[in-house]
Amino acid sequence: MSKSARVEVVDGPEGVIRTRVRFDGDEFVGYRASLRIEEHVRVKDSRAVHDHRVVETHDFTVDGTEHVFDTPEHSLELFTYEGRMIDLEVRAKLVVDDGVLWDTTLEEQVVRRLGRSPEVETDPKSAVDPRDAFNLVSNLAAIPLVNRVVAIGLILAGGVVLAFNTFVGVHDQVVQENEVYFYSQRDSDGETSSPFVNSLFASGAAGAAVWFGLKSQLRTYMRFQLATLHGRIDRNALLTAREMLTGRSRVDLRNTTVRIVACNMEKGQYERGSGTDERTVSFSEPVRAVVLYEKTVPLIARRKPVEDYFDDPVDFAPMFDALYPPMTVSSTHGLELHWEVQLLHDDLVDQELVASTSLFDVQEFYRVEHG
Questions:
Q1: Rounded distance, CA 191 to CA 179, Å?
Q2: What is the pTM of this model?
Q3: In the chain, what is the straight-line distance between the N-terminal and C-terminal CA atoms, in Å?
Q4: Left if phi > 0, otherwise alpha if psi is -120 to 50, otherwise beta: which for 195?
Q5: Would 307 disulfide with which of 226, 242, 256, 286, CB 3.0-4.6 Å?
């Protein structure tokens, strides 16, 4: 890195990111150079996998000691962010094509914070994934016969698979190495491995698959879908919950709550394991959740349109005030916007519908109203 060149983010006109490149002498005159504005996702982990993307590039030929570049903020829609599992950084990167094997490179961080309160009151995990306590017997009685048979089959098959897998794990743990059924007592690197622990991991994966399939069957007590929305949604949108959902239940629903929740999702990756067992783990963690709508109805009659019970306006302004706009650098890294419609019931499996964020006016997140 050369000390004879500097990159500075300086004050410019309102709505403009002004970057100044200064050269102390004439050693770079005549060389081609490039100033890049980049968005970086820094994962907060000891074995983090970071990512970035180039947002805008200014190519130029060095012909003096100072070059100034103005970039309209609205064309970039970039911001810095400090989160729980990731940070977002905006960087101005200067690359001078003056080398044979490598070029002179210089970076400067651009600080562009959006006005947001430090925290929001709603717990993001419980808002996006509320505890689903249900009565299995009541739920099985509420679904169609075909789905009931499938659900019971999944329960029985899952129990047999988990019991047999546990037996194999215990057996392979205590016998001689040449007598194992399935789980080796050594890993691919020749190190000692625990068959019982490995069987628990396999049982966990199998159990998760069975649970996912079972919940899918248990949800068939009703049809619950998102309605088709048109136009753009901003902070002044005049929409009712009725316009956003549709459904009918096969049974009477008592003390049922419909809730609309929005949050940001921090996304990134990190490495785990070692040697041939090294793997990349992707995560998607909810943060800064807000409840946009919530209403509990004492009784929704069977086969009646569910939407008829929720003819109340949805206030989107808290979402634009509290959440950050989406900012992703790839499919695996960045800050996403997430919102969903939930139908919550004490005795039956809850229903969740993840909605598209494409209808939101992203510019509204940059126009936070104060006071």
A1: 18
A2: 0.83
A3: 46
A4: alpha
A5: 242
